[in-house]
Write a sequence for this structure.
């Protein structure tokens, strides 16, 4: 109902000093932001609502993700995700792109789920679908514009070596990822060859949520050079009282070992601290039964749970 925006604009202009009088919600970002930019320029702030985060509720899990309806009724999650995908295809996809073959787009989503956490190779996706690379690129743009995936760009500042410059692709909600991969139970997830990638994406999504919910820009990168050195994530410090960048390795293991920190230590040796200080290194692992605790895995590297990293449980990350 785009005419609503003109009405709201007129009411705002009658009393411009009154703030936060209107809250307009929309389930599809591109249409909402288009109307805001055309009718409400200078009068509105756009807030992005991702699935619930660990900082908002510890009910968020690797298997179910953070969709409110799924967390409220976990036993019906399969039915909810199936219905969500159907309405997403019929409404959101068609509203932002002239996609004619929705069944092929659904297959594309499942195929892309198998590339979750991998460096994006559009040609590798196009071949099994019988599509062109530009067509796949367009569909990637649709998923990104509708908030289902995030492309994590490589970090190549301050390094004089050959760096991989293609992005990694992550699904934002781990519950949807599991559904697309046919993973229905915790036991299936534990046996899945995708467990590590799903957990890595879970960490990426929680960092994105923390940044967006704090009103900050999405800033998350990965590092990989042509010699094979790879660090999962590089991000600005997640605590307001610490400046600089942090390195993050995400491991689905519940028992971290010192060898897991080796890539971060190697990258730290090459880090140019004169331009951007290195504020910390964190090995993020899954929580085991028992009390939460953070520990020094090796000098300079802390082993923490994801709950601790994003602040739903405090590990003293500023030290």
């Amino acid at each position: 109902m785009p005419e609503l925006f003109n009405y709201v604009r007129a009411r705002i202009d009658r009393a411009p000093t009154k703030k936060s009088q209107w809250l307009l919600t929309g389930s599809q970002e591109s249409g909402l932001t288009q109307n805001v930019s055309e009718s409400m320029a200078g009068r509105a702030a756009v807030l992005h609502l991702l699935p619930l985060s660990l900082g908002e509720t510890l009910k968020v899990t690797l298997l179910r993700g953070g969709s409110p309806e799924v967390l409220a009724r976990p036993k019906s999650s399969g039915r909810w995700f199936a219905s969500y995908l159907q309405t997403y295809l019929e409404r959101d996809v068609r509203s932002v792109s002239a996609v004619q073959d929705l069944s092929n787009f659904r297959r594309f989503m499942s195929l892309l789920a198998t590339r979750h956490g991998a460096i994006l190779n559009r040609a590798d996706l196009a071949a099994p679908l019988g599509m062109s690379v530009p067509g796949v690129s367009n569909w990637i743009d649709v998923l990104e514009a509708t908030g289902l995936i995030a492309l994590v760009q490589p970090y190549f500042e301050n390094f004089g070596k050959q760096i991989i410059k293609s992005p990694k692709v992550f699904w934002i909600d781990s519950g949807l990822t599991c559904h697309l991969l046919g993973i229905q139970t915790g036991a299936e997830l534990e046996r899945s060859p995708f467990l590590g990638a799903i957990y890595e994406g879970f960490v990426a999504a929680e960092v994105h949520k923390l940044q967006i919910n704090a009103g900050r820009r999405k800033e998350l990168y990965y590092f990989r050079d042509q010699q094979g050195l790879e660090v999962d994530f590089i991000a600005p410090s997640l605590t307001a009282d610490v400046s600089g960048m942090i390195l993050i390795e995400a491991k689905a293991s519940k028992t971290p070992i010192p060898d897991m920190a080796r890539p971060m230590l190697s990258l730290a040796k090459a880090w140019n601290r004169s331009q951007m200080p290195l504020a910390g290194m964190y090995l993020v692992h899954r929580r085991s039964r028992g009390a939460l605790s953070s520990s020094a895995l090796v000098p300079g590297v802390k082993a923490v749970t994801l709950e601790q990293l994003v602040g739903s449980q405090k590990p003293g990350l500023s030290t």
